[in-house]
From TrEMBL:
It comes from Kitasatospora xanthocidica. It comes from the Bacteria. This is DinB family protein. Pfam families: MST (PF04978). Residues 1-37 are annotated as: Disordered. Signal peptide: none annotated.
């Protein structure tokens, strides 16, 4: 039997939170964004920050630690997976030839998530690059009803799908982080 980590949080104001409100980059003062597109972008930004926060402060071996057998899921695997899907989404909106799959074949994003600093650095670099590339490609679309790509996907559907994907995986990241070092919080 392996020893289970003790549950803990850095938050002192609300014990079910990841950090105190003044230290949480997802908290913003003032009114919420105006308009549907700005609201969707705000939610996506906050989920992206949440994923990074769940990974902060961990060593490469901890980031690569798998959940429960037979799952290949790890925090590092999630970072690589989300880099891969950001590229896939960019392929969805193009009429041209698709970019090659990031990391290769099926499950390579998780299978290649090994506890080496070079792999960690590359994964976060890939994620930042792919997020920026898709954000730039979508910046020209202000009409959420506009249909793009070979499958004529609406920009709204893609934006909601992106939020759903990050939200689901941030839930996984909550559990993975708690298994790694016991830190809890949303």
């Amino acid at each position: 039997m392996t020893e289970q980590p003790v549950r803990w949080t850095e938050a002192t104001v609300y014990p079910d939170m990841w950090a105190d409100p003044d230290d949480d980059p997802r908290n913003s003062e003032g009114p919420s964004p105006d308009g549907e597109l700005a609201t969707l972008q705000d939610y996506l930004t906050n989920y992206r920050l949440t994923l990074r926060m769940k990974c902060d402060g961990l060593a490469p071996e901890q980031l690569a630690r798998r959940s429960v057998p037979p799952s290949t899921m790890s925090l590092l695997g999630l970072v690589r997976h989300l880099a891969r899907v950001e590229r896939d989404w960019r392929n969805w909106i193009t009429d041209g030839e698709p970019l090659p799959k990031l990391y290769g074949g099926r499950d390579a994003d998780f299978d290649g998530a090994v506890g080496e600093q070079a792999v960690v650095d590359a994964a976060f670099h890939d994620l930042e690059r792919e997020q920026a590339a898709l954000d730039a490609a979508l910046a020209g679309y202000q009409d959420l009803g506009e249909r793009v790509g070979k499958d004529r996907l609406s920009i709204r559907e893609l934006q909601v799908h992106r939020i759903e994907e990050y939200a689901r995986h941030c839930g996984h990241a909550d559990l993975l982080r708690e298994c790694v070092d016991g830190r809890v919080g949303q």
